[in-house]
Write a structure and sequence with these properties.
Blueprint lengths: L29 H34 L12 H14 L2 H19 L14 H6 L7 H15 L1
Helix pairs in contact: 1-3
The protein binds zinc ion.
């Protein structure tokens, strides 16, 4: 078969939200793109560390439980059960953060990271470095917060 299908890692179709007219700033040159990729990889590393830390903290809390030795080797199902219990014991806030971290790492792995889920534009790398789990660009985030304020008031 002569046709060579290359899977595009970046979602270039973009404009699903056609109601807003917004100019996307985008890394365009190879240099810009590879620099962005590089910095995203750094973000991934720090996310992995943060995740590790969260799990460790949760783990040490778990170790204080009396039934810690109550899990003989019962295979995957048991492990899944333990994982689930473990997740339940993570406090809500940490659990949400952990979920966000995992999703961010997933997006990095499948190449959709750093794209605003509202407008489809690239999220500025500085914003990503400051708030790695964000899924919105600063404009959309600001807009959303203003809408929330209106709803709350
Ligand atoms: Zn946006």
């Amino acid at each position: 078969m002569p046709e060579k299908k290359r899977q595009s890692k970046r979602n270039t179709s973009g404009s699903t939200t056609a109601t807003k007219k917004k100019k996307c700033k985008k890394a365009s040159t190879n240099k810009e793109i590879s620099e962005r990729q590089q910095r995203i990889l750094e973000i991934r590393k720090s996310l992995a560390q943060q995740k590790e830390q969260l799990l460790q903290e949760a783990g040490s809390a778990l170790n204080t439980l009396p039934d810690e030795n109550a899990f003989p080797d019962m295979g995957d199902q048991a492990t899944a059960e333990i994982d689930r219990n473990f997740m339940l014991r993570l406090r809500g806030r940490e659990q949400r953060l952990l979920k966000k971290i995992e999703l961010a790492m997933e997006r990095i792995d499948n190449g959709t990271y750093g794209i605003c889920e509202i407008c489809g534009c690239e999220i500025g790398i500085k914003r990503l470095e400051a708030r790695p789990v964000t899924t919105m660009c600063i404009e959309c985030k600001t807009e959303q917060e203003e809408e929330e304020k209106i709803i709350e008031s």
